Amino acid sequence: MCASPLACVMLAAIAAASPADTGVAGDVEWRCSVEEKTWQLLPLPKQQQQQQEQQEQQAASLVVNVNTSAVRHEIEGFGGCFNEKGWDALSVLDDQAKSTVMQNLFGEKGLRWALNRMPIGSSDFSDSYYSLDDTAGDLSMSKLSLARDEEKLIPFIKAAMAVNPSLTLWGVPWTGPSWLKDSDNYWCGTLSTDPGKPAAYALYLAKAAKAYRAAGLNFEHLAIQNEPSHGGLWNGSACPKLTYSHMAWTGAQLASFLKTELGPAFEAEGIADDVGIFLSTFSPKKGDAADYNALIAPTLTDPEAAKYVRGVGLQYAGIGMIDAIKQASPTLKTWETETPCGGGRARDCGTGPGTRNNSWAWGESQWSTMRSFLEAGASVYSQWNMVLDQTGMSGWGWSQCSPVTVDNITKTVTYEGSYWATKHYSYYIDAGAVMVHTAGDVGTCATVNRACGCQKTSGCTSRRGLGYDTAQYISFVNPDKSVVVVGLNAADTVQHLTVTVDGAVVVANATLPPHSFSTFKVPAPSHA
After folding, report:
1. In CATH, what number does 114-129+167-207+216-322 get?
2. Where are the domains of the chain?
3. Measuring CA to CA, how many Å separate 329 from each of 56, 172, 243, 307, 377?
4. Which H or E run contains 487?
5. Under a CB-based contact definition with an 8 Å cutoff, are residues 225 and 170 in contact?
6. What DSSP string describes 142-153?
């Protein structure tokens, strides 16, 4: 069923268009997705039609102005996270169906995910607790093994590499081996200070990176810890609660470990040049100045620690710390490392059939959060789980959203709203592209954890949580000088859009359907 009668009329017109009427006009390509009909190549108005409509609709048209000389920052790429639960979901499919999903995630006609995350040991979407060396007392890490990963995680990754052999990886532990922690368990506590254990943990991480590379994976970065401020502390006899793998760190602990143990271990193992160290992937409570000072500043203000760091990872709640990071170290990579993942399908993702399992509205909010982080200065945007089954269930009893859903009963695959939201960015934006200044009716950004990602260009909506304007636009210039304008119409009515690039009109009064994602690709000028 269509979102509105007008949307039905528009979809009928799209379906009735002949091949000669669809595609590009003036070499500008327009892709549009609505829930009922995704990834459509739509016709742009012809010149005569443009002039007439411009006169009739000028007052109602949104105008977006792209300035290609006002470069903000470079984009490295997009990706998601490999997890055991994702491979479990895919494993119910036959080879052809599984191959189709992999192409749609990693192929040139899919999301083109080329920079992806993997857990080192168990995550909250692994099947159970584990580390790569569960032999207590093995300080030399002679028993470190990828045997568990070779069951599911590495086959998942290698299936993706079969589609894109140049796909790169970054890894992060949710916990170290339990016997290296003060709690002697997987779900709480911090690194033990017993003699030899901090050095052993640094060796564990260095040898894990080497082992993944030896296994044929393009493992290029390692973050010290997933969500270091989330782990509960061991009180000497118990944890706050039994949950998925955690390991707690303060900012001071991270800085000390980095400069005295991990950085030197990477040098001693000969991988410092090949595997860059990221200062964790942070998911703070507020992402404000206090969180930055507590978690990140201890490393960036210590030259002996900072010299080992190539970047900082921030999950969705950390957007408010980007400015402080850029001020402290302007050349440091800043990655968004985990998108909002939903609090359960009944609450955030919807409960009905088909794409409603993850809801088109959820996809719209994902689109807006992506725009916020890219505006704020992130050079990488990462989804969380790539694929889950229809329950979305973790190994510890809660469900989350995913771009792709595999129904393990009917063996059917659904590409959710967040998949199409992501594709409207990742399919068109090449590695090495730059974000450029976009003015006009660009819309305000989503507030993420009450922080604004777009304050330098367009401000933020005053709505709480994941509120966002119904019309939003952001622009990029690819290495080949083509211009990409990505847009969202989250309104219940059509929007008319005019786009200029460096003062020249390239799109005039395009009619955007309600609740749609659009991408316009403008070819490089002939003089470029």
Report:
1. 3.20.20.80
2. 5-73+477-522, 114-129+167-207+216-322
3. 50, 22, 35, 11, 13
4. strand 483-489
5. no
6. TT---TTTTTTH
The answer to whether 510 and 45 have CB atoms below 8 angstroms apart is yes
Find how far residue 180's CA is from the centre of its chain: 31
State which amino acid sits at residue 213: R
Amino acid sitting at position 298: P
Please tell me what DSSP assigns to residue 140. T
Q: Which CATH class is domain 5-73+477-522?
A: mainly beta
The predicted-structure confidence for 109-159, as pLDDT tens digits, reads as follows 999 999 999 999 999 999 999 999 999 999 999 999 999 999 999 999 999
> 345 in helix, strand or coil?
helix
Enumerate residues 6+ apart whose C-beta is below 8 A from 283: 227, 229, 230, 315, 316, 317, 318, 338
- Residue 414 forms beta bridges with which residues? 405
Model-level pTM?
Answer: 0.90
- The single residue listed with the structure tokens 């505006």 is 375
C-alpha dihedral over 32, 36, 38, 42, to 10 degrees? Answer: -40
What span, in angstroms and rounded, lies between the C-alpha atoms of 446 and 370? Answer: 9
Contact predicate 82/88, CB 8 Å: no
pLDDT tens column, 213-238: 999 999 999 999 999 998 889 998 88
CA distances, 276 to each of 31, 198, 526 (Å): 36, 20, 39
